[in-house]
Amino acid sequence: MFGRGYYPKLQSCVPFTPATGPRLLVHPKAADRGGEEERLKVMMTLAQGLKAVTDKFGLSSAHVTFLTREEWLAMGRVGFKQRLGVQYHWRNQGYETFDDFLATLKQPKRKNIKQERRRVAQAPVTIKRLRGAEIEPRHWEAFYKFYLNTVEQHWARDYLTEDFFNVRCFPQNVSTRRRGEGRWRTNDFRGLNHRNACAAHFS
Fold it and tell me: DSSP string spanning 74-117?
């Protein structure tokens, strides 16, 4: 990039979560003293701080992703390049059941979705949601193996350690187990659409 290495870089984000949210942590009452303009100045000061840290440590660049529009504007004022992106969000338009939603789709899409959900319902697996203290060390051990399996299949790099996968990192998790067996398997959902596997269980 511009004749320089891309890494190391400074990144502000919520890991693995493409969801918009505050990235410049400004106190909610910051605007009480000088109004919204004062709040904007605080954000601009923080943004300048990001630039200073980037320069101090010789980093290639600083990136802030999925920030709020207010932050986007503030960072643009201090020289950050502003990126525009497109996201698709599903919103419930008053549907009371999943069939209500399906009724709004064209017949081919309805047919495909029903077939995918039928395959999930007929698959030899049981899906169970575990929360907080319900998640035992054996679950995290299995989850780590799933992660390594995914890394291997997609030629990725296993930069997350086994210690990363613990209940303190993830207060909620969805897990799968083969029906009638105590063994966890990485291939129980092979051939099944992950989105529909989850939707079929939790919708």
Answer: HHHHTTPPP----------SS-SSHHHHHTTS-HHHHHHHHHHH
* Beta bridge pairs of residue 64: 12
b/e burial code for range 148-174 (CB count within 10 A of at least 16 → b): eeeeeeeeeeeeeeeeebebeeeeebe
Q: Give Cβ neighbours of residue 160 (< 8 Å, ≥ 6 apart).
A: 147
pLDDT tens digits for 6-19? Answer: 889 999 988 777 88
- Cβ–Cβ < 8 Å for 68, 12: no
The mean pLDDT of 173-186, rounded to a whole number, is 46
Output phi, psi for 178, to 5 deg.
Answer: -70, 130
Query: Beta strands 62-64 and 10-12: pairing type?
Result: parallel
For residue 137, pLDDT beyond 70: yes
Whole-number Cα distances in Å, 78 to 15, 46, 83: 25, 10, 14
Cα–Cα distance, 10 to 64 (Å, whole number) = 8
pLDDT digits (tens, 9 = 90+) for 98-125: 899 999 999 999 999 898 888 877 877 7
Residue carrying the six token digits 């010789």: 58
CA 176 centroid distance within chain: 20
Question: Which amino acid would we find at residue 34?
Answer: G
